[in-house]
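Side project, low priority. Logging it here so it doesn't get lost.
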Amino acid sequence: MNVWIAIGATAIGCYAVKLTGLLVPAGVLERALVRRLAALLPVALLAALTAQQTFADGQTLVLDARAAGLAAAAVALILRAPFLLVVAAAVAVTAGVRAVGG
C-alpha cells in the first residue's frame, strides 16, 4: 500500500509543478536571466547524472572501467568526432578495461 501512496504523491507533485509552470506570467519567462538558466539547466543536470552514474556505486565512490570509458568519450568529443563514434569509443574502452580486469 505504501507504494501506491508514493505513486499518488508523485503524480500530484508532477501535476503541481506543471500547473505552476503554466501560471507563471509570460513577462517572467522573457527575462534574460531566466532564459540563460533555462538554457544551462539541462546541461548541468545531464552532467550531474553522468558523474553520478560513472563514479558512484550505491553509497561508495568508485573509479573503474566506466571512468575510462567516460575519458575516452571526452577525448573523442574534444577531437570533434561524430556522436556515434563517441559512443562507440566509450563502449569499446569500457569493455576493453573490463575484459582486462580493471
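Brief comment: The chain has a mean pLDDT of 93.
Revisit when time allows.
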